[in-house]
Amino acid sequence: xxxxxxxxxxxxxxxxxxxxxxxxxxxxxxxxxxxxxxxxxxxxxxxxxxxxxxxxxxxxxxxxxxxxxxxxxxxxxxxxxxxxxxxxxxxxxxxxxxxxxxxxxxxxxxxxxxxxxxxxxxxxxxxxxxxxxxxxxxxxxxxxxxxxxxxxxxxxxxxxxxxxxxxxxxxxxxxxxxxxxxxxxxxxxxxxxxxxxxxxxxxxxxxxxxxxxxxxxxxxxxxxxxxxxxxxxxxxxxxxxxxxxxxxxxxxxxxxxxxxxxxxxxxxxxxxxxx
Length: 275
Prior knowledge:
The chain has helices at about 1-5, 60-70, 95-105, 145-165, 185-195, 210-220, 230-235, 250-275, and strands at about 15-20, 20-30, 40-45, 50-55, 115, 135, 175-180, 200, 240. By secondary structure, it is of the alpha+beta class. The protein has one domain (about 1-275): Nucleotidyltransferase, domain 5 (2-Layer Sandwich). Strands 3-4-2-1-7-8-9 form a 7-stranded mixed beta sheet. Strands 5-6 form a two-stranded antiparallel ribbon.
């Protein structure tokens, strides 16, 4: 439903979702799996179509953890010691908007800090229930804002890893649709474009893509819409985010380190978290 609500109704279209979990999905007209990278093929809402589906167990859930444990505990740090309730309306819709604004003050690459978003194990491209989140390369000068940005970048690095694994087997699209609550933040949208190296498209109310997809599928079944391609055209693009070449070198360096962290620490995760 989320893929349909994202407007990805044509074979070959790819969308990325950041909500509690995260994923990269490409719509296909045949079934395919990749056991080595734990990428599955699940049935689409369209007859004879499938989603080539690579999942990250915790995406937005990591940012929620940041809100509760890095930001909310000392939220006064961000606005001159003035508490900001979650329903603050004058400038921010929620604490997530406030955090996004603060993240924008940190340069790409989070001043060298890197975060792994495996806070409930991981599914793809490696399946390991013992894997866990960690901050890497913290220094005396590392600040809370650096750590918060590192969490968002870590989510995006992992989603890039999933996209690369999909692209090794099938053709993925450029541009890519981005939906879920994470797509409400322009900072995250630009970060995703820079790290992916692809154009990112967003839509209105991206957090409701699943509900919109269900409505479109119902309209197709009732013959109110005559084709799945027509359904996709009812979801216009709201904003485009183009990769910024100035950030490429920094993100490429950090991404290479990020990719190496699981292999370097897998045995440590098992020692600490294995049964």
